[in-house]
Design brief:
The structure holds two protein chains of two kinds. Chain A is built from five helices and no strands. Chain A is mostly helical. Classes of the chains: A mainly alpha, B alpha+beta. At the A-B interface, helix 2 of A face helix 5 of B.
Amino acid sequence: MGRGGVTGTGMRQRAALLALLVAFAGTAIADAPAGARSSRVPRPDVAAGAGGKCVEDTAFMRRNHMALLKHQRDRTVHDGIRTTRHSLANCVTCHVDAKTGRVTGSKDAFCEGCHTYAGVKLDCFECHADRPAAALAVDAGTPGAKP
Amino acid sequence: MSDVDRGRRQILAWGAAMAGVTLAPGVTLFDLAHGRPPSEPASPKVRWGMLVDVNRCASDCDACVVACDKENGLPGEKTPTSAQWIRKVELKDMRGQTKSLPMMCQHCADPPCVDVCPTGASFKRADGIVLVDRHTCIGCRYCMMACPYKARSFVHEPVTGQRPDVPRGKGCVESCTLCVHRIDRDQIPACVEACAATGHKALLFGNLNDPASEIAQRVASYRTTAIRADLRLDPGVRYQGL
């Protein structure tokens, strides 16, 4: 086999690769208006809240926040340990939605948005306040009143 | 806080400082009750209690009940099924004399509600406060039947607008917590504060285990009554002048 043959094969490969790239780019552009994100999987568009740094690493919190909360709740209820680092009230204070002042109640809210997306029942807020203490003071609603 | 309260606190602080003096390394007269840091668990050396001076309690006053509702986010408007953590009771003796007193969870040393709880939700904290862990409560209401003081309530309706310090919801039993969230912040219960604000000063809160505390001294020097003393539950709430 001569040199010319080798070059011919290389050119054909490059042309095929280019065609593939063009095809992919076309698909990506066509998809862009629907997804508006790089991933083709729809993601929950939740408001992260106050911003800044969370009490633990974000990736760790995504997987383990429920374990931290469960551990903290037992320490608080049974032993009276009231450190705020892993307390639910601390979560709510930071992650409250700037518009609604709550962490539940809409698909954009931090807690409910992600839980709805993941299909995991969120029952903390059947008993716990879904807004910080400061917001509650402003809210004119009667405590304990039915909605 | 009134001047009297401030003075009382100052005396308590001096007493605590005196009694907290180290006798030998690691041995003190008693553990300091006040100023427990948030990271430390409640101490079994403390026994929180309340003394109700019935002679000072006015029959037309319900400041303690109102303060409790406000502090704990309970509905102010009472229906036959709404939760009731503290209530005013009128007692009439054989001679027709009436006495008025507040009735709430008596925070027994041997609480029957804890004995009967099938899940361990009803428990006594190390410092003597009897509580319900709502995470474990299944709403069976055995504790309500076991309590001789009718101190517990069941939440029948969905609850909204809870206070961040006092989570509560439908399907659980609840009762007076002695404002445990305030105690952990080194504050006195809301009812005691409200009673003092009216000028009646019928309620006194403190550490029964601390001989220097006003409550321990009054329990030691005056005749106080434990309601249903025949049951020998050793309640943390005592009544004076009954």
